């Protein structure tokens, strides 16, 4: 992280034991299974893609496939840098997520023997990788905006961090809302430290994306796979964005 990064002797991860979950399996992504999020048209910046400086990632509003590929790799790199710094501040060694796996067909990629569906993004704890339907992701990128990719990778990366911290909840919704909060903390801290630069309107893209991927109001909160309502997800994300990891019940 850059010179503006916050430094602490012991970070918010210090009270947790860093260990992988014993049970292998998949942790759901953003609640996007079997259907595209319904979004407004993307914000048009009218500006060409720019090459960021080595220490800075910029979500700049362009919508080409090349920019998608660049942004998703930038999002992965910035998430790795953020969590490595957090673990280091807590006196722990960080192990990055092994792979980022795009796929285009249902069942093309498996997690713990289960084929992944289309229109989804998932962290797989069994193989320690993030997989995403590239066609769905590009469509969401174009319809919501490029900032959404940084949230998407931030949320899935948070699931990998939960595994590394040995966090396990009784209900899926608890795991998911915490991952939203952790994604918000990563993005908010990265903006404040100036390792991530957001354009005007990117915060609204985060909000629009979160409001689009909430559970149906009729879905029971305790059901397997529940991620939270749109309001719950937005509240968790922005609580982390504004207050950092201290807001995410990590210890």
Please give a structural write-up.
By secondary structure, this protein is α/β, with parallel strands linked by helices. It has one domain (26-40, 50-247). 40% of the residues lie in helices and 10% in strands. It has helices spanning 65-89, 134-144, 147-164, 172-192, 202-212, 230-243, and strands at residues 26-27, 57-59, 99-103, 110-111, 114-115, 121-124, 129-133, 196-198. The strands form 3 sheets. The chain has a 4-stranded mixed beta sheet with strand order 1-6-7-3. Helix 1 runs parallel beside helix 3 and helix 1 crosses helix 4. It is globular.
Low-confidence stretches: 1-12, 14-25, 29-61
Count of DSSP H/I helices: 6
Task: Please outline the major beta sheet.
Answer: 4 strands, mixed
Shape: globular
Order of helices and strands: EEHEEEEEHHHEHH
Number of domains: 1
The level of helicity is: 25-40%
Share of residues in strands: 5-15%
Counted beta strands: 8
The largest beta-sheet arranges its strands as 1-6-7-3
């Amino acid at each position: 992280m850059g010179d503006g990064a916050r430094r602490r002797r012991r970070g918010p991860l210090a009270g947790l034991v860093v260990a992988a979950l014993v049970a292998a399996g998949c942790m759901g992504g953003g609640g996007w299974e079997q259907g595209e999020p319904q979004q407004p048209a993307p914000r048009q910046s009218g500006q060409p893609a720019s090459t960021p400086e080595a220490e800075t990632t910029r979500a700049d509003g362009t919508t080409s496939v090349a920019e998608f590929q660049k942004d998703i790799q930038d999002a992965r790199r910035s998430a790795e840098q953020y969590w490595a710094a957090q673990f280091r501040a807590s006196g722990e060694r960080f192990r990055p997520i092994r792979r980022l796996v795009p796929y285009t067909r249902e069942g093309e990629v498996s997690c713990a023997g289960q084929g992944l569906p289309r229109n989804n993004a998932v962290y797989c704890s069994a193989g320690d990788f993030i997989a995403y339907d590239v066609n769905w992701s590009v469509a969401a990128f174009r319809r919501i905006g490029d900032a959404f990719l940084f949230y998407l990778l931030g949320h899935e990366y948070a699931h990998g961090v939960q595994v590394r911290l040995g966090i396990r909840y009784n209900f899926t919704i608890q795991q998911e809302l915490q991952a939203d909060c952790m994604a918000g903390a990563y993005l908010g801290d990265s903006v404040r430290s100036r390792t991530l630069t957001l354009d005007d309107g990117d915060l609204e893209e985060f909000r629009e994306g979160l409001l689009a991927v909430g559970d149906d109001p009729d879905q029971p909160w305790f059901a397997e796979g529940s991620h939270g309502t749109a309001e719950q997800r937005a509240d968790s994300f922005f609580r982390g964005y504004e207050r950092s990891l201290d807001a995410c019940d990590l210890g």
